[in-house]
């Protein structure tokens, strides 16, 4: 009898111990091939921050389609998206059930790059030059805004449909200006030794300082697994804080997991992002509701979404605490 009771007790303890660990893997789907926007994920994996929270986490490569749609459909728990990409998914009579739960980078670091010899040192000077467009209405409206606000003629820009994958090569063709993310393409341009001008969108209106990229989650998952979601965010915060404090070591961790990446480029990018992941905020991942709302109000005012997005919809800071 004692042996039987002891067996039951041991089994109970084992089951209790198992309960501390996530019952199934938590999936985080990337938006693009692995890069320094994602370093905190790989650091959290490598340094055991997920494991310390009792989590098994899978970092999943991006799907053929949209990561945002995949998360909305419940195909994974978390994914990486962008505030502008989320807009049409939220501005709908049947919005996707997604919520941004952390800002991976605090400010929009994207903008327009051109070779210095082209003389495009102000938005109005894009007129008369070629620009590589991926034909997004939001993309083109942002270009129109910064050019016209600066006194230029948007219609004089020669739009060339082109989804640029190699900015360094593109700038040495018939393309004069390209939209880039400074932390990645900007560092590649610097490594190539090109002299360029960079027009930072966030400098041309707070409504253009939108969040890019963000971590999104499926709403049903958040409702049913709130405590687990907080653990995921805690581990990610530790990962990004490590990358902020140790950019070179974080770069080496990323390249260890993704060996096809160029270590020199990754180190340069990490040095840049170490100052951008949090910027001026005290806690990594925090959203500013005013900035979030201003961007969506601007989209609606410019007829870029079909219906208004209510204030403070689409993001939360609740899982960062």
From TrEMBL:
Gene3D superfamilies this protein is in? Periplasmic binding protein-like II
Query: One GO BP annotation here?
Result: thiamine biosynthetic process
Q: Which UniProt keywords apply?
A: Signal
For this protein, the record's Pfam families field holds:
NMT1
Where in the numbering of this chain does the SsuA/THI5-like domain appear?
35-250
Q: Which residues form the signal peptide?
A: 1-20
This protein is called what? ABC transporter substrate-binding protein
Q: Please name the source species.
A: Erysipelothrix amsterdamensis
């Amino acid at each position: 009898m004692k042996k039987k009771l002891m067996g039951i007790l041991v089994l109970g303890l084992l089951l209790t111990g198992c309960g501390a660990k996530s019952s199934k893997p938590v999936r985080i789907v990337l938006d693009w091939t692995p890069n320094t926007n994602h370093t905190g994920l790989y650091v959290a994996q490598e340094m055991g921050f997920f494991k310390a929270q009792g989590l098994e986490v899978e970092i999943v490569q991006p799907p053929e389609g949209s990561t945002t749609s995949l998360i909305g459909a419940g195909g994974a728990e978390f994914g990486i998206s962008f505030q502008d990409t989320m807009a049409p998914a939220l501005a709908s009579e049947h919005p996707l059930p997604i919520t941004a739960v952390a800002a991976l980078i605090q400010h929009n670091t994207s903008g327009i790059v051109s070779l210095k010899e082209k003389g495009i040192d102000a938005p109005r000077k894009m007129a008369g030059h070629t620009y590589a467009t991926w034909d997004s209405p939001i993309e083109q409206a942002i270009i129109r805004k910064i050019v016209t606000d600066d006194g230029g003629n948007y219609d004089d820009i020669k739009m060339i449909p082109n989804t640029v994958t190699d900015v360094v090569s593109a700038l040495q063709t018939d393309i004069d200006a390209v939209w880039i993310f400074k932390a990645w393409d900007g560092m590649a341009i610097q490594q190539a030794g090109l002299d360029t001008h960079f027009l930072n969108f966030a400098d041309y209106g707070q409504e253009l300082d939108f969040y890019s990229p963000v971590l999104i989650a499926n709403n049903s998952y958040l409702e049913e697994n709130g405590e687990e979601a907080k653990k995921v965010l805690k581990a990610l915060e530790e990962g990004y804080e490590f990358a902020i404090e140790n950019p070179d070591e974080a770069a080496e961790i990323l390249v260890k997991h993704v060996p096809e990446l160029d270590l020199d480029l990754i180190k340069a990018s990490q040095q840049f992002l170490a100052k951008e992941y949090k910027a001026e905020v005290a806690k990594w991942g925090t959203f500013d509701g005013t900035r979030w709302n201003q961007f969506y109000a601007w989209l609606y005012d410019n007829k870029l979404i079909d219906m208004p997005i209510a204030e403070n919809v689409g993001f939360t800071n609740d899982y960062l605490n």
